[in-house]
Automatic annotation (TrEMBL):
GO biological process: CAAX-box protein maturation
Record-annotated CAAX prenyl protease 2/Lysostaphin resistance protein A-like domain positions: 98-196
The organism of origin for this protein: Maribacter aquivivus
GO molecular function annotation: endopeptidase activity
Coiled-coil features, chain-numbered ranges: none
Ranges that cross the membrane: 34-52, 73-92, 98-118, 130-149, 155-176, 188-207
Keyword Transmembrane: yes
The keyword Iron-sulfur belongs to this UniProt entry's keyword annotation: no
Official protein name in the record: CAAX prenyl protease 2/Lysostaphin resistance protein A-like domain-containing protein
Keywords: Membrane, Transmembrane, Transmembrane helix
InterPro entries documented for this protein: Rce1/LyrA-like_dom (IPR003675)
Pfam families the record matches: Rce1-like (PF02517)
């Protein structure tokens, strides 16, 4: 029996997670820590497919609606986005070569839109008939598990604490979307996290884990 659109979308993160771990283990054998590049590229391609196939331009327009009020939730989004700021202040000097700063800035500019459109926009829209906490935990847990794949080849991105921190961010961003009916502030918060998180330097283990 053919799956419905809703069932396909709800099943999609499991496929994406499986692909992400497969790339991490398979490509990691010969690419080492640089495997984050195909992992991100393939992830973007899969997310964009589901976003445009099952969301479309109308959904994207709705996700980017201007937020009126909800000052408290906007503030929470900004606070979460600023959490990696100390990390940036300690390690920004590692972004001194184009092979490091180019993927870092590209990730910060594009990744927040793609990930938020998929993990918060598409998945929360397709699980809106669930309880609020049910949909929030579903998307948050899978969001965290997907990011755990980066820990296969990167010490900095490995460990239980990273999974928990990603889970917390996923939960907060999900609630911000539910309370504001817009992804504008989750995208901005996600941008801050990716920007201040010196992503490429972290993926390449250019600093020691816990060296904050």
């Amino acid at each position: 029996m053919a799956l419905t659109k809703r069932e396909l979308v709800i099943a999609s993160p499991f496929l994406i997670i499986a692909v992400n771990f497969a790339v991490a283990f398979g490509f990691g054998e010969f690419m080492g820590k640089w495997v984050f590049i195909p992992m991100i590229g393939i992830g973007w391609a899969l997310w964009l497919f589901f976003i445009f196939k099952y969301g479309g331009k109308e959904s994207i327009t709705n996700w980017l609606m201007k937020v009126r009020g909800a000052f408290g939730w906007k503030l929470i989004a900004v606070i979460v986005g600023l959490i990696p700021l100390p990390l940036f202040l300690m390690h920004y000097q590692l972004l001194d070569h184009w092979t490091i700063w180019l993927p870092w800035i590209l990730l910060a500019l594009f990744n927040p839109f793609i990930e938020e459109f998929y993990w918060r926009g598409l998945l929360l829209d397709y699980t809106k008939t669930w309880s609020n906490w049910g949909s929030v935990l579903f998307t948050g847990i899978l969001f965290a598990i997907n990011h755990a794949a980066f820990g296969v080849n990167s010490v900095v991105n490995s460990g239980f604490e990273l999974v928990i921190s990603t889970l917390i961010m996923g939960i907060v961003w999900a609630w911000v979307y539910k309370k504001t009916n817009s992804l504008r502030w989750t995208i901005f918060s996600h941008f801050l996290v990716d920007f201040f998180g010196v992503s490429a330097a972290a993926f390449l283990d250019l600093y020691e884990k816990g060296n904050w």
